[in-house]
Amino acid sequence: MATIKLNFTQKALDALSPQPQRYYVHDTKIRGLCLSVFPSGTKTFMLYRKVNDKPVRITLGRFDDLTIEQARKQAEAFNNDIAQGNNPREAINRKRKELTFDDFFQVYLEKHALPHKKAAWFDQEQYARHIKIPLGVKKLSDITRITVQDFHTNLGATSGKTSANRVIDIVASVLSKAIEWGYLSGTNPAKIKKFKLQSRDRFLTSEELPRFFQAVQQEENDTLRDYILLSLLTGARKANVLAMRWDQIDLTRGEWRIPETKNGESQRVVLSSEAAQILTAREQHYGQSPWVFPSTGASGHLQDPKKGWQRLLQRAELQDVRIHDLRRTLGSWQAATGANGFVIGKSLGHKSMRATEIYARIDLDPVRHSVQTATKAMFEAGGLS
């Protein structure tokens, strides 16, 4: 069939009828742009050019899905590449071989998160919950700053600003490794401005503690009950309490040695008599496991018990309380019973430039006294004395 040339208009292309064999109609305005008409009646925009004397055919999209203007813009972009000496087909083939975000996340887990991050399980959980569906199918180079900004904004609206900021930190970490390892070039598109958050000052007050302790006592799951109480009585970070091991605990000395905290340093946590009593009882039932809070999951220990925590809050009629607020509660009650900031910082494992030198000169006796005094005050306020 002879070459057909038309000024592409909607009316002209609608009028094209299928033939027993596929044929092409070429646009008179944009070089290389043509419409392929199949015997089935399907019509598809294509670019047909010769690059280095070799034919290059690139499918742009179906006539039903693209407007003529969109097809012309795509064709012009490819023509510009060709004018600069590039073969757009080669770029398309590279794109097809490029990893998706989901593909690379598995590489990131294997090479970085699982070997080096204690909270790799958190990255996996957040990825499955928030990241996989909106970003997983995208090629790495298709994830732009606008893509990430829109994702962050939408997540903030649906899951909260704090959660959105934490998820973006994971995305940024993944893309940073993609750049470092040569899977992606350029700057990290996840380095965006995050939501500004107000510092939390939530802790359990004397009016709330009776309901809290009553709800804890009513909890039938002893692992959840003991985990929550030890989170309060030690003031330790959530991840450290979840991963507490028997070989880290010296009940004779009343100490728990955390090998590595969020700060990257070890920490000695004093155990009040109430905390030691809980651990003694658990050791009788769970001492055969290396974990204080054993679980059948992959990690071997309890993971984030969100449902159990929400169940307890509902029973206690408490709102806007997070597990991390138990840590703040101990510190607040230490302050209320006369402890100074350095002693509180030492007991909670805080790290600051100003306090570092003083921490080195503080032994655990005043810390132990402060923790025990605060525990006694909390129990009295909760009606447990």
Can you characterise this structure?
By secondary structure, the protein is α+β, with helices and mostly antiparallel strands. The chain is 51% helix and 11% strand. The protein has 16 helices and eight strands. The chain has helices spanning 10-14, 68-83, 88-97, 101-116, 120-135, 145-159, 161-180, 209-218, 222-234, 238-242, 273-286, 306-316, 324-336, 341-348, 353-359, 364-381, and strands spanning 4-6, 23-27, 33-37, 43-51, 54-62, 249-250, 255-258, 267-270. Strand 3 and strand 4 (43-51) form a beta hairpin. It starts with a strand and ends with a helix.
CATH superfamily label of the largest domain: Intergrase catalytic core
Structural class call reads alpha+beta
Percent of residues in β-strands: 5-15%
Major beta sheet, specifics? 5 strands, mixed
Strand order of the largest sheet: 1-2-3-4-5
The CATH class assignment of the largest domain is Mainly Alpha
What count of helical segments does DSSP give? 16
Return the CATH topology of the largest domain. hpI Integrase, Chain A
CATH architecture of the largest domain: Orthogonal Bundle
Number of domains: 3
Overall pLDDT: 88
**CA-based gyration radius:** 31 Å
Can you give keywords for this protein?
hpI Integrase, Chain A, alpha+beta, Double Stranded RNA Binding Domain, elongated, 385 residues, five-stranded mixed sheet, 51% helix, 3 domains
Topology, pairings included?
Elements: E1 4-6, H1 10-14, E2 23-27, E3 33-37, E4 43-51, E5 54-62, H2 68-83, H3 88-97, H4 101-116, H5 120-135, H6 145-159, H7 161-180, H8 209-218, H9 222-234, H10 238-242, E6 249-250, E7 255-258, E8 267-270, H11 273-286, H12 306-316, H13 324-336, H14 341-348, H15 353-359, H16 364-381
Parallel strand pairs: 1-2
Antiparallel strand pairs: 2-3, 3-4, 4-5, 6-7, 7-8
